[in-house]
Amino acid sequence: MTFQTLDDIEDGQRVLVRLDLNSPVEDGEVQDNRRFDRHTETIRELIDRDFEVAVMAHQGRPGRDDFVSLEQHADILADHIDQEVAFVDETYGPQAIHDIADLEAGDVLVLENTRMCDDELPEEDPEVKAQTEFVQTLKGEFDAYINDAYSAAHRSHASLVGFPLVMDAYAGRVMETEYEANTAIAEKEFEGNVTMVVGGTKATDVIDVMTHLDEKVDDFLLGGIAGELFLRAAGVPVGYDIDDANLYDEQWEQNSEKIEAMLDEHGDQITLAVDLAYEDDEGDRAEQAVADIEEKTVSYLDVGSETVMEYSPIIRDSEAVFVKGALGMFEDERFSVGTAGVLEAIAETDCFSVVGGGDTSRAIEMYGMEEEEFGHVSIAGGAYIRALTGAKLVGVEVLQR
Asked: Which phi and psi angles does 174 have, rounded to 5°?
């Protein structure tokens, strides 16, 4: 692992802790999500070990509707850890420094949204971020820095990469477990079959993952928009935009040569859908066999039931299964069959499993499954994709220094 964790830090210190509490915001109200629950483990451990804790986090981006204060986040975090959490509407101003100095053992203070600081953005080299006023002002107020924000570790922002260069730095429990699980496919040796369920809306992500892991994965099971583009490459008349859609043709132009080459070179590893689901005239789910499609006249919103029946035995015969992206529009129960079906097969299989990629992990709770039925459920999106493609995560690299 090559970075220090909470096992390596002495109790009772004053620590600056970077979390990722970035959440959906609806009508100005911050929504609770699984990130609060995950980070609770780290914060509770720090409280129990008498640390004085100041939390940094970001919310949204400047100019967007979800770019709001972290005051509500402090209240949500308080509910999760079952104790009062203070908030200061500065990140490193005089009041923030005063409130940090007043921390006592077991206290938790949330600092204002890091992205409200000019020094946080844009992305620059860690050495540049380490010299910003933001980092230089706060570094002397703490004994150590703890990064628990794995899901933001692909960003070279001041709060993520500056502090480890000027302070003792450690990984929190989320950072530790996410790193171990998400790099497992590249670093672990599996004796049996390794299967990857690949879906989602971005063909480039799918291609990058499949290209990087072609020697590690025995079976790729495809769905989603990317899966439809692979069907198009296989000669099926799908993977085209119809009506006002703008999901397929542009991605096809950008990726068609790579998709065709991948099918040609690794076709024995790739399993494509044998049927697809769509909304019929009555608003119900309907399914059509891929072999019967003569022209695309409807929008396909999920893989079909026969496809799930083909994918499930492959999953059950696997020693390890990784999931990147959804196989359909699972947020609509009518089109959850693919995503929920493969997740249920994984949950019923005694295998090493990692589920991640965007919001896919939400389907576990939505359709009555328990996270404990899976080896690891990642809360990371972009960082998870980068880990699967072998790309370096700058926020991890600076911890490893």
From this structure: -65, -45
